[in-house]
Amino acid sequence: MNLFQGKEVPVQVRWMVRRDFAQVQAIEQACFEFPWTEEEFRQCLQQPNCLCIVAEHAERVVGYVVYETPKNRLLISNIAVDPEFQRRNVARQMVQKLVSKMLYQRRHRIVIEIRETNLPALLCFRALGFRASTVIKNFYEDQSEDAYVLQYRLGKEHVDPVYAPASRTDSRLVG
Predict the structure, then answer these.
(1) What is the distance of C-alpha 41 from the center of its chain?
(2) Between vectors from CA 24 to CA 30 and to CA 128, what angle results, nearest 5°?
(3) Residue 118, in any domain of the structure
(4) Which pLDDT tens digit goes with each residue over 122-143?
């Protein structure tokens, strides 16, 4: 039974630190059919433009976002919420933190690629104000699955009609 069923869980969104890594990896393993390996996380986070924030509730990491900062946008590479805390607005609170970072870093949009079969993620990001801009055919090599590219534009009601992905990182969301 989920203690938080039907209730928003307030979280503190902060930078990930080394001691968070085990909890982030556990959430990854619990959420995805094709989880990132520890080595894939490390390689991504060693890149100069790759960052990670976590959502913490009662001294427990309950969600995370890995994102890149190419040019004038933020590219979400990976996002997940612990299954026990899903549908409690944890993802919304993390995305709101990214939006606040956009203002500070003079970025104009947030971009994410989502598997075509990940309906919960598509609905979540649509509710957060993201709009589909394109489809990338056979984006996910593990199953030759297409990806929808969704964008959130700061102060804009439309998305760019042309999009070139910054990476082929598996963007996913559970929560």
Answers:
(1) 14
(2) 80
(3) yes
(4) 998 999 999 999 998 878 777 7
CATH code for position 20: 3.40.630.30
Q: Are strands 109-115 and 73-81 parallel, antiparallel or unpaired?
A: parallel
Of 21, 66, 60, the residue nearest 167 (C-alpha): 66
Range of the domain at 26: 12-153
User: Using one digit for the tens of pLDDT, what is the confidence trace for 15-57?
Assistant: 999 999 999 999 999 998 889 998 998 898 899 889 999 999 9
Residue 79 lies in a domain: yes
21 part of a folded domain:
yes
Can you give the C-alpha Rg of the chain in angstroms?
15
Sequential DSSP letters for 18-38 = GGGHHHHHHHHHHH-SSPPPH
